[in-house]
Write a structure and sequence with these properties.
By secondary structure, the protein is an alpha/beta fold. It has 20 helices and nine strands. α3 packs across α20. Bound molecules: guanosine-5'-triphosphate and magnesium ion.
Length: 525
């Protein structure tokens, strides 16, 4: 029978029990234990001090500018935040550069997974021993069909809508020359199996094991500070990241490190990085030819052209650049970082010092998760916000919400904008509207995608860039007009936030207009 040791501490308190010295402790063990406890106390006190100092530093002063980036998922808020970071804290983006590999590799692996899953739906290519699938055979037989992009066969856009489609392989466009078919899809699929199989681990690394219910289908979310998880062994770099973190003030002039060991892309940072990411990098390097063969495979091209395979813009971007992305010692370019896609979870705060008439003013930028299940997290930030940039992707007229496939994205964006304009907490906030993804809108219209097919009210207006943009802009302006008791101005910009030069000039413009309001309210002029 177990006897309880009598003690003045509560025997029910597991912590108290754990802290008790072991029974029959020798003098030398006791000395070691006391030393360890003293050291643990010292570290704990130091962390407390650092946390206290950090909290003090992060305390929002009433003179700071608080800017919210709002809008639905995939509208471009985090991409815009990266542009702010590039402009006002380029050093911090340098420090994160290496960690973006995790997101980009994840984007590539997910894209491959989606291609193979779509192919599987279309044809059971693993069925039987024949290395050539039914789809491939049918497609080979269709050599008399017009070539992609040639007259009489308008090149269809890479599909992004979620409306159901019926497989119709007989209508598939023809293959590129037979000489380019190094392998059948079933062979490629088999060889890419282990790379695809690593997706859950990559997802786990990014999300830190947190899964989010009710916000999209199996999406992976990240909280601010996720970068540190991608650099588990990069102690030096990780130290710098966790100290700075996404929530810490960053100086606009923070220098890019001069220590070659810490420079992004140096052998030291690479060798110190997460073994999982290094393994994926090596798998990608070895699979590079297979990925390219799959991406360029005539059946895949045909499915894309017929909008049976619907890939996101970032999938296209990274698969087109697969030679670069899968190269040894790959280090993401700034353009890669701007195109990388990972959903934001909750609200991530970023702090920048922005000069105004020679005086630094602290800006708090709040980048929110835009999926429906994330929107409740915005409200606590409404109270003392000075300005909002509402981002709406006007290219999304043919897309539906991931979290609600019956709702058209433009519709959702207009509804959300109505809620923002009419919210009493936000009635005095400086309002800026970014009609974003104009580059994608242009491409969709050039490829012949008809707006009226998805937005019935568009009717028989010309299916061209200017009239389409004017139509959408008019709807947003109307929402604003109907919900504008305070007669505030709405500043509108047509944007492609992956275009650094154009976006930075718009940011300067927005900054100046926000400052004018800020100066008036702070009675500084
Ligand atoms: N071509 C193009 N791509 C864009 C543009 N804006 C954003 N993207 C891409 O769209 C994807 C989604 O952008 P994010 O900035 O992650 O979207 P978000 O609004 O932060 O989404 P949530 O965090 O889910 O709310 C990324 O791959 C971006 O690179 C744009 O103007 N043009
Ligand atoms: Mg985001």
């Amino acid at each position: 029978m177990l006897m309880r040791t009598p003690s003045i501490r509560s025997q029910d308190d597991p912590l108290a029990l754990a802290l008790l010295p072991p029974p029959a402790e020798s003098e030398s063990d006791r000395q070691i234990r006391l030393k360890q406890e003293a050291e643990a106390r010292r570290i704990s006190d130091r962390i407390d001090e650092e946390l206290k100092a950090e909290r003090k530093r992060l305390e929002r002063s009433k003179d700071d500018v608080k800017l919210l980036l709002l809008g639905q998922a995939e509208s471009g808020k985090s991409t815009l935040q990266k542009q702010f970071q590039l402009m006002y804290s380029p050093g911090s983006l340098e420090n994160e550069r290496m960690s973006w590999r995790t997101v980009i590799y994840f984007n590539v692996v997910r894209s491959l997974q989606k291609i193979l899953a779509t192919l599987e739906v279309w044809d059971d290519i693993d069925d039987g021993t024949d290395s050539q699938s039914t789809l491939e055979r049918q497609e080979l037989a269709n050599d008399d069909l017009p070539i992609l992009g040639k007259p009489h066969s308008p090149l269809q856009p890479v599909g992004t809508d979620t409306s159901p489609t019926t497989p119709s392989p007989t209508h598939l466009a023809p293959p590129t020359p037979i000489s380019t078919r190094a392998s059948s899809i079933s062979e490629l699929r088999l060889r890419l199996l282990s790379l695809i199989g690593i997706e859950p681990q990559l997802a786990n690394r990014l999300s830190g094991g947190v899964s989010v219910a009710g916000s999209g289908k199996g999406e992976v979310f990240v909280r601010s500070g996720w970068q540190a998880r991608s650099l588990l062994k990069g102690q030096k770099l990780m130290g710098r990241l966790s100290k700075r973190s996404d929530n810490s003030p960053t100086s606009p002039s923070s220098p890019v490190t001069s220590d070659p060991a810490e420079r992004p892309g140096s052998s030291m940072t690479v060798s110190n990085a997460d073994p999982l990411i290094e393994e994926v990098a090596s798998m990608l390097y070895q699979s590079h030819d297979d990925i390219r063969a799959l991406w360029e495979h005539p059946v895949v091209r045909a499915l894309i052209s017929k909008r049976k395979l619907k890939l996101d813009e970032w999938s296209e971007f990274f698969l087109n650049g697969i030679a670069r992305v899968s190269a040894r010692n790959y280090m993401p370019t700034t353009d890669d970082i701007l195109h990388a896609r990972i959903q934001t979870m909750g609200v991530a705060e970023h702090i920048f010092d922005v000069e105004i008439h020679g005086k630094p003013v602290t800006w708090h930028l709040y980048d929110v998760g835009g999926a429906r299940g994330q929107r409740h997290t915005w409200v606590p930030y409404f109270d003392d916000a000075n300005a909002i940039i509402f981002v709406s992707p006007i290219s999304a007229f043919d897309q539906y919400l991931e979290e609600d496939p019956r709702t058209n994205r433009i519709d959702d964006s207009l509804q959300l904008f109505t809620q923002i304009c009419s919210n009493p907490l936000l009635k005095s906030v400086h309002l800026v509207l970014f009609l974003n993804k104009t580059d994608i809108l242009r491409k969709k219209l050039e490829r012949g995608l008809r707006v009226s097919k998805y937005i019935l009210s568009y009717g028989d207006r010309p299916n061209e860039y200017e009239p389409v943009v004017n139509y959408f802009r008019a709807h947003f302006l109307q929402v604003h007009k109907r919900n504008n008791e305070n007669r505030r101005v709405l500043y509108t910009h047509l944007t492609n936030v992956t275009d650094t030069k154009a976006t930075q000039s718009i940011i300067e413009n927005v900054r100046d207009s926000i400052f004018r309001g800020y100066l008036q309210s702070a009675a500084l002029v």
